[in-house]
Amino acid sequence: MTLRIGPLVVDPPIVLAPMAGVTDAPFRGVCSRFGAGLYVSEMITARALVERNERTLSMLRFDGSEATRSVQLYGTDPRTLGEAVKFLVNDIGVDHVDMNFGCPVPKVTRKGGGSALPVRQRLLRDIVRAAVAAAGAVPVTIKFRMGVDDGLLTYLPTGRIAQEEGVAAVALHARTAEQLYSGTARWEAIAALKAHVTTIPVLGNGDIWEAHDALAMLAQTGCDGVVVGRGCLGRPWLFRDLVDAFAGRPVQPPPLLGEVGTVMRDHAERLVEWNGEEGGMKSFRKHASWYLTGYPVGSQRRARAALVATLADLDTLIAELDPEARIKDNALRAARGHTSGPRPVHLPEGWLDLIDDPTPPEGAELLVSGG
Known about the structure:
9-stranded parallel beta sheet, TIM Barrel, 2 domains
């Protein structure tokens, strides 16, 4: 099964979800070792990019293995976002731009950004139109949630606007902003979006913990591909499993702890090469905890894994692990990363009063400027 996003061919139809502080080049490199797909960068901010913020520019790095340079962009102002897309296409040479309209973080929604922005459909249309025009032949996609809450669902009109304005594909995280990461993703919303948006691919996101979940999502919703987020945290071999499943091959058993240790070392090395030992190992600590989830390593070693400061520390820890240990049967579906929610969504004062107002929200990009 092949997914086409404008001129890009994604086979099998698997996309790594952009995750802040996670999907940097080292992580993308580790994941792509296990199988083909589209690997998207962590979110960067249009305003910070236009201002040439040093930290943001440092996030626009790709390793030599990335044949497709894919970047997720956050913005709330059509003019600024258009300028940012032009820079990405003309100066950085990206092959794909994804736009974030699904962030549920309170400091973002409170200013009208992220999953709050699709409420303002005229503004949304202006932003999407500006991005598509600036991108030229480079495909633009958008990712969004079902809506603010069950009383304010926006995903169907958002999909329609994207289709009308020349977006190459849409991706739906089948939860509302109010849900955050709680409960179960509602795949029926993906099916409804697929029935509503008929001329461009529709991708589904939410609760893909094992390879068979992706096949089930496609069967139940008719979507054209899957977006994998938390399911691959500490488990980059999920992409290998997905490749096998889409090819009709048996999925391999979960790796033994010795194999996990080898992947951990590779990931840490990449981060150190990218950010230096101090910064690289600090970034690796959260990954270390995710890699060990479900394996019988003991509470003390888990605590040490969250504090590794050098590659030597990591080597000592790995040497103590039982290389033949297996993951617990019920641990494959253990949630990694965010688990918060539900929580009421805070919107700017009067945000629902003038849904046709095209004025960009004031200060929405300042809070996330620099990344």
